[in-house]
Automatic annotation (TrEMBL):
Cofactor(s) for this UniProt protein: Mg(2+)
SUBUNIT field: Homotetramer.
Residue positions binding substrate: 126-128, 163, 170-172, 223, 244, 250-253
Keywords, ordered alphabetically: Allosteric enzyme, ATP-binding, Cytoplasm, Glycolysis, Kinase, Magnesium, Metal-binding, Nucleotide-binding, Transferase
Biological or metabolic pathway of the protein: Carbohydrate degradation; glycolysis; D-glyceraldehyde 3-phosphate and glycerone phosphate from D-glucose: step 3/4
Residues annotated for ADP binding in this entry: 22-26, 155, 186-188, 214-216
Name used for this protein in its record: ATP-dependent 6-phosphofructokinase
Length: 320
């Protein structure tokens, strides 16, 4: 049974990470454990940047974006020597387990550390929702709502000027944010890395809808497509509709987390501590059929996430 646990955030930050840190801390304390916060991802483990946590350490953070533990990328942890150094630090501090809040890269580190005898539990924290073993990642809902609100504002000006606005949203190599946000704003088209696209076909559709009285257009592009400026210029050249590109960028990573992100983070954080309490490690906590569950890290990393075909189809059929 775990007596002392650590918690860290790693990789890109995401709204709701603080709610997860709070849940891990409070659940650990409620179960009679000592809890420490490891700062700046695996770097803090290797450098001994660690803070003792009590109930008040996590007061007033549930509503805040970012991560109070800071986050970083730690190249040293990719090598076995770095992982062994991490294990030695855990033994030195008397840590019986660590909760790692991050993405797939962070989970690889957690698997390596578990293999060295330190039970680690991964919690999916990324705005991209690109982690295959889970239907949902902490930060996804907030990021999508932010992108939606931004595009609603962009629409006001696109409408006033009879323009086409091409908006790039984040998502790394995945189109989950793009498809859902495009559906939510009623975009004319969405372009994602998972599907081939035809700018002539999109331009033709714009011209058709223009005939029915449409005067402005919103096109959502996932960052993984990587050609937002080119797409904007090409659509303008073909249709003659004045077009502007907007890259939403890091605004999508910040802000106060939504209800969904706070609640899921709390449930996942609690579940992670329950696993460590039983001495279980090398697991990722996820959501399956809308329920919290856990899965072996290697298995989690080998899964593939299905593309949202149905939503993609509905979006395209109703955009005119
Ligand atoms: N293959 C790996 N083995 C061990 N640790 C890794 C590995 N890949 C990534 N990490 C650790 O996890 C950190 C975060 O990974 P990264 O891929 O940047 O973000 P994310 O966790 O969001 O996917 C890396 O900086 C490194 O410390
Ligand atoms: O913060 P950076 O280094 O600019 O990284 C940007 C990337 O991080 C994200 O915002 C989040 O990705 P991760 O959660 O995997 O780090 C991606 O959408 C984007 O591609
Ligand atoms: Mg990643």
């Amino acid at each position: 049974m775990a007596k002392k646990i650590g918690v860290l955030t790693s990789g890109g930050d995401a709204p709701g990470m603080n709610a997860a840190v709070r849940a891990v801390c409070r659940a650990g304390l409620a179960k009679g454990m000592e809890v420490v916060g490891i700062l700046r991802g695996y770097n803090g483990l290797l450098n001994g940047e660690v803070i003792e946590m009590n109930a008040r350490t996590v007061s007033g953070i549930i509503q805040r974006g970012g991560t109070c533990l800071y986050t970083a990328r730690c190249p040293e942890f990719r090598d076995i020597e770095g992982v062994k150094k991490g294990r030695d630090k855990c033994l030195e501090m008397g840590l019986d387990g660590i909760v790692v809040i991050g993405g797939d890269g962070s989970f690889r580190g957690a698997a390596d550390l578990s293999a060295q005898g330190i039970p680690c539990i991964g919690l999916p924290g990324t705005i991209d929702n690109d982690i295959s073993c889970t239907e949902y990642t902490i930060g996804y809902d907030t990021a999508m709502n932010t992108a939606m609100e931004m595009i609603d504002k962009i629409r006001d000006t696109a409408q006033s000027h009879d323009r086409c606005s091409v908006v790039e949203v984040m998502g790394r190599n995945a189109g989950h944010i793009a498809i859902n946000v495009a559906a939510a704003v009623g975009a004319e088209a969405v372009i994602t890395p998972e599907k081939p696209y035809d700018l002539n076909a999109i331009a033709q559709k714009m011209e058709q809808t223009k005939k029915s009285g449409k005067t402005h257009f919103i096109i959502v592009v996932a960052e993984g497509v990587g050609k937002t400026e080119y797409i904007t210029r090409t659509l303008q050249d073909i249709t003659g509709v004045e077009s502007r590109a907007t890259i939403l960028g890091h605004v999508q990573r910040g802000g106060s987390p939504t209800v969904r992100d706070r609640v899921v983070a709390t449930e996942m954080g609690y579940h992670a501590v329950e696993l460590l309490e039983q001495g279980i490690g090398n697991r990722v906590v996820g959501m399956k059929d809308n329920k919290i569950y856990d899965v072996d890290i290697q298995e989690a990393l080998s899964m593939k996430k299905p593309f949202e075909e149905e939503l993609y189809k509905i979006l395209n059929e109703t955009a005119f």
